[in-house]
Amino acid sequence: MKINGHTRMAAVVAKPIKHSISPLIHNMAFEKTGVNGVYLAWEVEAKNLQASIENIRRFDMFGVNLSMPYKQEVIPYLDELDVSARLIGAVNTVVNKNGILVGYNTDGKGFFKSLPSFAIQGKKMTILGAGGAATAIIAQAALDNAEEIFVFTRQASYEKTVSKMAAISNQTKSRIQVLTLEDADSLQDKINQSDLLVNGTSLGMDGISMPLPEQLELPSQILVADVIYQPFETPFLKWARNQNVTAVNGLGMLLYQGAEAFELWTGKTMPSQELWQRLEELYNN
Q1: How far apart are the first and last CA of the chain?
Q2: How far from the centroid of its chain's Cα atoms is residue 39's Cα?
């Protein structure tokens, strides 16, 4: 890859962000697709967010990705929102369309693309949590015509989650039911009905915590997924695999949400399989 006067820039904007592997993913993609681009990590203070977004236009950038804490804060500085970003209420990708800044959320699409031989249309999903990543997955499932979505959240967050899910349900006409994680009987009942079980919480990042009671049993046909990719196998995934069901971690979601952004910026398909092998080398050790 040679940087010259025609090189265009993309970046990820967050704080903190120095740990991000997005530069590795996107710069490899630029190189392998022959796109004259470079991708950087910008650690930006909140007071500088607006100026950073204005620089997308100023420097004719492809656009930016956004991570915490700016996925919602960026919205007032954009010209348009895609349907997914509007539904989720958060943006993880900004695309510069000839000076018009359009906000997208590719997290949900990336998640479902990462699942092996699975389409959510007409199926039922149980998801644990209703935070940012979980909401993106729920909204995309609703947009993709899932038959029914069971959202389990802590009792303390129940009322807020009911309100948020009602808004998504009303805009998509999807069936979304909110229940409490403390209700183990309901959790077992909904898992038994589901084709997909997702841990959308951060529980398990410590390599110890479980997001649900270990005594629960999984139906043989269910697919299990975790949004976490470090550790590579969380206690949740180990629990699922011990019951002989297919279980996938969040590394594919990270890659494929980036692939969606890359295609929006460049019109090119990211060579995801090649990049997947590189990421597995980094994290599966």
Answers
A1: 29
A2: 19
Other Cβ atoms less than 10 A from the Cβ of 32: the count is 14
- Taking the model in full, what pTM does it have? 0.93
- What are 161's strand-pairing partners? none
- What pLDDT, in 10s, does the model give residues 56-66? 999 999 999 99
Burial (CB < 10 A; 0-12, 13-18, 19+), residue 69, is exposed
Under DSSP, is residue 125 helix (H, G, I), strand (E, B) or coil? strand
- Is 71 a catalytic site residue? yes
Alpha-carbon distance of 137 to 152, in angstroms, equals 13
Residue 56, sorted as left (phi over 0), alpha (psi -120 to 50) or beta, turns out to be: alpha
Please say whether the dihedral angle defined by the alpha carbons of residues 82, 88, 93 and 94, taken in this order, is positive or negative: positive
Q: Is the pLDDT of residue 154 over 90?
A: yes
Asked if 222 and 76 touch (Cβ cutoff 8 Å), the reply is no
Select which of 2, 15, 32, 71 is catalytic: 71
Residue 198 carries which DSSP code? E
Contact 101, 66 (CB under 8 A): no
Secondary structure of residue 67 in the 3-state scheme: coil
